[in-house]
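This section describes the prediction task in plain terms. A model, or a person checking by hand, is given the sequence of a single protein chain and must write out its three-dimensional structure as a string of tokens. No templates, partner chains or ligands are provided. The sample shown here is typical of the held-out split.
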Amino acid sequence: MTHSLSGQRIVIAGGSGFLGVSLSQHLAGCGAEVVILSRHEPNCSGPWRFCAWDARSLGNWRQELEGAAGLVNLTGRSVNCIKTPDHVDEILRSRVESTHILGKALHEVHAPPAVWVQMSTAHIYGDPPVARCTEESAFGHGLAPDIGRAWEAAFQASILPGQRGVVLRPSFVLGQDRGAGGGALDTLTMLTRCGLGGRVGSGQQGMSWIHETDLNRLFERALTDDSMSGAYIASSPHPVSQAEFMRRLRRAVGMPWGLPAFTWMVRIGAPLFLKTDPELALYGRYVLPERLGKEGFTFHLPELDSALKNLFGRT
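The expected answer:
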């Protein structure tokens, strides 16, 4: 059974960033009343109501869950940083502790949301060089897969008995800057326009991606379609290599060339100039949304060229 969001309250925890703002606008366009829980208000105005939340402790914010139709949890410190011990600790704790406290709040309201849609990550499958991963594939090893497993375990431990739960594992999200930032695509676009949008390392590492329109539609479907349950890869069915992704991005922004970056250059330059982890550029994965295909989900922008044209307006 599928339900309408018109007049329904949807609570988005951790909704003040790029993904949260995009999703809030989408759900409001579907007629939903959107409440954003976060430490800070979004940097732009929009069709939502803001409620302060420290993502650590219970408070009056839990009343926003009373009678809500759905809960979406996007909370988590950005992984776009240098992986110092303090940053790693915060990346993990921000995800696990916020998920647990949402679960505690749900136990204290009389009419909790019928569905909880939980953000996860396609990085849970690690960085296999050539394998195409589906929901049935083995999880990877290392920092990001370990954090992904801990995040999903916290969700499974916190969801209410009988509450429908959906876990979305997105890949790289392509979206527009609406005042809250356009995610990692902003950085890639800046580098490309400066002539630095070439092959990184071998260039063969996987670039799995999804346009924000399709990710928002997946969240909408997860909230409204009672048949959705469990974990789904949220990614276009057409991943490409990093070298191919950058070639098409250069064409989309009108830059005819891009200097390559050798592995040693990235390991020096990423932390020094971009203040980020070089492994985010040097490694990747090819993931396929097998469950969505079997359940009949149709992507509006499944091809990379059409997704980039939608964002940049070039052929």
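For orientation: Residues 85-107 form the longest helix (23 residues).
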